[in-house]
Write a structure and sequence with these properties.
Shape: globular
CATH topology: TIM Barrel
Strand content: 15-25%
Structural class: alpha/beta
Helix content: 25-40%
Number of domains: 1
CATH superfamily: Aldolase class I
Largest sheet: 7 strands, mixed
Distance between the termini: 50 Å
CATH class: Alpha Beta
Order of helices and strands: EEEEHEHEHHEHHEHE
Amino acid sequence: MPDTDSSIPMLKDTICYEAHSNLYLNITNQCSANCVFCIREAGDGVYGYNLRLSREPSEDEIIKELETLDLTKYKEIVFTGFGEPTCRFDTVIHITSWLHKKGKHVRLDTNGHAALMYPGRDLVTELKEAGLDAVSVSLNAESEEKYNQLCKPAFEGSYRAVLDFTKKAINAGIKARMTVVSQQGIDINECERIATDMGASFRVR
């Protein structure tokens, strides 16, 4: 018979993890892209944390985990992790609102595809009203052609959606940053120009 010793502890999924004085939230492993440089292709996580989820945590489970932590010691609470957070957009909204009421600075790291996943919704307004402070949007290329080759998005028009999402966030008063992963053939200077012309800051990851 197989060993079914119930005393052997089950490994707990990583919902929250710490780095750079921030707290990061890993709420999904779903994604609307299949980027050639994705860290999921090289390992199971970052900073020594295993970020592969056996299942998606419920909102109650996320809040329960947050309630065990001293949130005052973190500079930012960041939705990021091993998937695209906006695949669970309503959860992002609800948890952002909960954190905002506690006076926390909240950032969303995103690929910018949310409008394609939830057509008809004013997503940026929802994020602003929930109390989101900042977004970091993955630009990753200076043209749609290169973007599609690198990121292999699930939706047609994803590159335009990235630009539109960022511009709407800036217009709504949400602090915005655009990022790229340094890859051969990517014009970093042109990517920076695209970001700064829009009013976003820029970072090479």
